Known about the structure:
The complex is a heterodimer. By secondary structure, chain A is an alpha/beta fold.
Amino acid sequence: MPQLNTDSIKERTFDAIVIGSGISGGWSAKELTEQGIKTLLLERGRDVKHIKDYPTTNKLPYEFEHRGEVPLEIREKAPIVSRCYAFREDTMHFFLKDKEHEYIQEKPFDWIRGYQVGGKSLIWARQTQRWSDLDFEGPKRDGFVVDWPIRYADIAPWYSHVEKFAGICGNKDGLKELPDGEFLPSYPLNAVEDHFRQQVSKKYKGRYVIRARAAHISKPEPIHLEQGRGQCQNRTLCQRGCPFGGYFSSNASTIPWAMKTGNLTLRPFSVVHSIIYDEQKGRATGVRVIDTNTKEEIEYFAKVIFVNASAINTNLILLNSTSRRFPNGLGNDCSLLGKYVAFHHYGGRVSAKYEGELDKFRTDGRNPAGCYIPRFRNVYKQETNFLRGYAAGFSASRGFYSDTAPIGEQLKENLINRKLSGWNIGSHMMGETIPKKSNYVKLDPDKKDEWGVPLLRVNVDFDDNDEKMLQDYFDQFSEMYAEAGFTDIKTSRTNNPPGLDIHEMGGVRMGHDPKTSLLNKWNQLHACKNVFVTDGACMTSTSTQNPSLTYMAFSARSANYAIDQMKKGNL
Amino acid sequence: MQRRTVIKNIVIMAGGIALLPSCSGDRKKASILLKNLNTSAEQEALLAEIAETILPETGGSPGAKSMNLHLFTMKMVDDCHTAEEQKLFTKGLNKIDQIAEDKYGVSFAKCTPEQRKELLVQVAEDKSAPKEAATFLKITKQRVIQGFTNSKYVMTDLKQYEMVPGRYNGYFPVEKN
């Protein structure tokens, strides 16, 4: 190999390497570079520059060849990603097509991926809620998995840190189960959502319908303007990439910020094959990268390595990082690497209609956030026949419709003079699933992808607890809807496999004890302290909150800890 | 002049070689490039008349034909429908002409606007209408409506779509008619 040249090694040596440029990797890179740490940010996909590389962002619906529909040929070749709600003609260039990185489904699992600079931060749903101690203490109280090695007080300042920079809208609701954050103004509930809020708070103790907390700049602060970002313009075309930088993405925020420091080297087209472990030094010394254009293998070196490859790919990289010291994957002394993978249960929806005096209102403009109902089951003590509970997204909306039965002039007349529809109510559950040893990812012993990395085998499924929880969600929401005077209440199962929630978590869980967990309270591998995992892979349990904000906070917290340890000469 | 003739001949020859096995003589092709459908210029013209019957030009507002919604329909059927639906679409399109011949003794294009409308209403509503014709009409109507409501005319000129609202009001009073 032509890598013996010392100048070449010097050029390939950094203070830190961050694997993955999505929502967590962007944060790791920002924190490290801001404090003078020379950082290499690796991304397996292509580069996507803010605004410049959002090819569809300003297109009108009629400027799309298929008016937003994904052609059948693409859907048939990529059935997994085609099931994702956000995969449309205007956004499909930001989603990985199935064949571009295959995996083996021992059980159905829809793995949704965004292989580009910015990762899935370009296409996420932007909902951001904090965890509370009621979540962190869950496993210990209810006797599943292992105790989280941190509590809310450990992460609260880091939630504040990332919220201020990212720009999170929300209302200070004063709920113990959903701590308030550093909020920009929230988007108001509409007439019927507000009606539901009042009815629920009147009739149910401990249940709240609140304004969503979301990564939208409802009113920019100087820190957002400094990033070159402006106010959200309520387009709700977010997954195309926002020309205003109105929602948070690595592309609009953390990566350009890190770039400005002069300390960031961004390398797209770089699949990380494995992390290099030096037996003599007893630490990781770098990473092996496959250049996806040339297929050349290149090694990069650094004092610390942040693995932010997205939950499942982080598992894959660690499992593939074998050495004499770690024959079963880096840091895998407990043999639990890849196990206890969990997700969020999006298995049910409840819809309804509203008719009544609020029909005198409609909405004008668009709400990019929506509303949210925090978990109200088993919050303070066990009270149902299932463990934990679910949060829910909720919305009431009114659109326009036309009677399309006629043919000819009458049809045209109906299409031009649309009628205002009644109020439609919808909600979807987001349930906590209990991580289990039998829900795992592992490497296939034989099959490899085009970069020489073993294919992943995924075996993740629902269980009886999930089924009971789904039934309870149906029952409770049907009842709450009826209490609020809604009619035509309908429950529906989504019947989606795990993965389509795009909240896959775990496999490299945090814990106190190296015998039962992979990461310590600083997200360091217990057995290889200069490797940090701060994406979804680190999650010991899932709770019900949309997880990205917590990954951002973990990344910022761990990066600052790593800097501190480097300064002290410990890393 | 001579040079141009030579070039023309070469093109015809090259085209002839490439297309001979699948092309039936002098059948003129559709005006847009299609991957799956084998639609002729004649079928395209028929589809345009059908689309125009579904959404006709009326005082001051354009109809399906001038908005090229028949071409949009062909494009969507070509790219977004299954092979089975594409087959039914083409068969059903031809069937419409046949129904016109049987019913009125002339092709669809030669029917009066009233006859055309009557024919399509019958295909849409009569349960005994041939399956391919009913499927064809269902697809075509759906795509013509989609093309119309997603057109520049409706979205921008008639202001049914606002790309950058920059506002949200959840208690907006409904206008009294």
